[in-house]
Amino acid sequence: MRKPKSPVFHPVGGLAVTGMTTQSIRLKSRTNLVELSALTPDLFRLRITRDKDFSPAPSWAVGKADRPAVAVKITQTPGQVALETFGGRLTLDTREGGWNFSDSGGNSYLAAKAKATGFIGGEARTTVSLGEQQSIFGLGETSGTFNKRGLIREFWNIDVLGHGVPIHPSLRNLYVSIPFAISLREGRAAGIFWDNPARQIWDLGQTHLDQWQMTAESGEIELYLFAGPEVARVVSTYTELTGRTPLPPLWALGYQQCRYSYETRARFEEIARNFRQRKIPCDVLYLDIHHMDGYRVFTFGKTYPKPAEMIKKLARQGFKVVTIVDPGVKDDPKFGVLKRGRAETAFIKKPNGRGDYIGEVWPGKARFPDFLRASVREWWGREQNTLLKTGVAGFWNDMNEPANFALKTKTLLLECRHQTDAGPMIHAAAHNLYGMQMARASREGALAHQPDKRPFVITRAGYAGVQRHGLVWTGDNNSTWEHLADSVQMLLNLSVSGVAFCGSDAGGFMDNTTPELLTRWMQLAAFTPFFRNHSNLGTIDQEPWAFGANIENICRRYIELRYQLLPYLYSLFVEAHQNGTPIMRPLLWHYQDDPIAVAAGDQFMLGRDLLIAPVLRQGARERMVYLPRGIWFNFWTGERHEGGQHIITAAPLDILPIFARAAAIIPLAPIRQFVGEKRCEIVDLHVFPGASGEFNWHEDDGLSMGRLSGDFHDRKISATVGVDGGEIHFAGTEGKRASEVKQWRVVLRNSPRDFVVTVNGREIVSHYDAAISTGTFEFANSGEAIDIKLT
Predict the structure, then answer these.
(1) Contacts of 251 (CB under 8 A, 6+ apart)
(2) How confident is residue 454, by pLDDT bands cut at 50, 70 and 90?
(3) pLDDT > 90? residue 162
(4) What percent of the chain has pLDDT over 90?
(5) 220, 283, 398, 602: the active-site residue
(6) Catalytic residue among 401, 594, 602, 778
(7) Distance in angstroms (rounded) separating the CA atoms of residues 720 and 630
(8) Annotated catalytic residue, options 263, 476, 505, 700
(9) pTM for the structure as a whole
(10) Helix (H, G, I), strand (E, B), or coil: what is residue 307?
(11) 476 an active-site residue?
């Protein structure tokens, strides 16, 4: 018997120019069509297909298609074509298909050798050369090491719980697929994004140390290439392309409590009572699947009678209620959602196209909405409005990989048929898009019915661009120290992959946590963008009070600090919304020329000015912290440290090491039990010694879309403070909103002496505590510029 022939790899090559515009050049060979484009000065695209023309279908990831024209120099020489802007250069070997992406000075960022890019069977592939000192970050939600080099990772969304220990470091794929990476080599950053939602596998130098092999199961090669050399520039351009995080409601930045499940209304209200009686701040309580009637989506069952009354009662106590929403619609002919969905032909079809595909999830037999179609998303939004009318404040999209208990693959048959906005598509091609499009349906549905309210949507699954529609939490982790440590690098890589609003289940979801582990996780989570405690069915309680008074007091202290830091956090959310800058940042964001900072995946920056060094080892009461160059101050004690070195710092159980950068300006609001409990009338500004400190104060109602129309109160605060005195300046305000702040209280940290303080030329009273080297003074707020002199 003759063996079947192995598929032949057809590399790109033998190309001839067939067309040119001011920003692109198109080439063709016997088997391939190639297009090189310069979309912005620092964004290039390399697109290759085996078809006669490129697919006309719009990208699901790209959020901004129209761009102003950019000046591009296009050159042709024998065997080569090149596009060049002042930001970068992309060249292609027309004979053998090698390509090189470099900066304008010719320093290579990313390059593929001859015959390394092309097609084999149904697959598309390219191989990028790896230099010795090259590191790779990003890839969205992936487990394992912080630097992804040396790993194999797969972009195929899965319900992890069905595949092994949740979020185990060796798992190749998780819930979210973002085929975007940042290359950092000799201090120069560049980015690459393969916009292809089909299953991809990236071998990041594991099989061959010097090769980064990328393979897509189907579809085109569509590589977006981002010039640096700064990491911040790469991420800014990537998020301009795929979209940025919309401003969430301010209450979404508060503490959130969840469990699978609070099975009765009585238990749910008991949890709420405990928070208020114990004076532990909390804004959001979650309802997992047991609140539903037989797991029917958008319903409440007998264990949750009179839900609107309950939600209204909780609202009076300052709580928002968020409900889980799974995509599987129970296959019950009497169920209204199913009947209306069938009338809309809303569900994914069987492989033969005759009838809806029926799988199995929590409600038993279930059908799956085809969220890749606008009419289905609109229908889902109408159904979801039932929850809005009941008073529900947000939507927690779960099981949306999509998960399916009926098959070993834990998802739908790959041949199932979608009828998408861009035409017919089989599930194999649509799979990674499904969760993001469900989140889109939730967000668009909320806006359709409450157009002036900021939606709150949380999603487990997604694809590149998911940040436009909802925040991402990292799914079903374990109550283990390994997963606590893994969550740091996972959230950092998500953050630099465009998903600024992200977090992990504090305390761990699977298995039982311990008092020490819960404490350390709550301390860490207080400084991550999304702060939620969540645990599994059958595990011991892990609410902040579950382990006695000592642990409760520590948890309370860090939750309270979270609420005090809300003005600082909100400023970072506005920055993320405006330019894509992460809230939680790896040290390499600000110190990419420092090899030690680049390698640090166990500590992070919260904004530019706070360095967070969580304790990640059981029993540790000290930890090694790397302080980058400059001067740093222990946030708790004020102790001064020279940067550019490792230090060992005390970390008893009640202390998470935090350091403030020299010249940091950190606003601390009064402690509140929930956002909106009381007006933020007095704000402490902690000012650390140093030159040219800045903080952008952002204030609005925290709920509506009013900021878009000028209903905000913003101002820049700057400071330079040293031994000989200094200046603090409040710029005039922007926006038409009046500030809630009546009084500013400045706290001069590490102050060497008592200063004479004048505010707009008038001397005011100040106080100095020599024992803690701290000066304080306060003055009334004003919308006009405020100049403060320290002499």
Answers:
(1) 283, 284, 320, 393, 674, 675, 676, 702, 703
(2) very high
(3) no
(4) 96
(5) 398
(6) 401
(7) 15
(8) 476
(9) 0.98
(10) helix
(11) yes
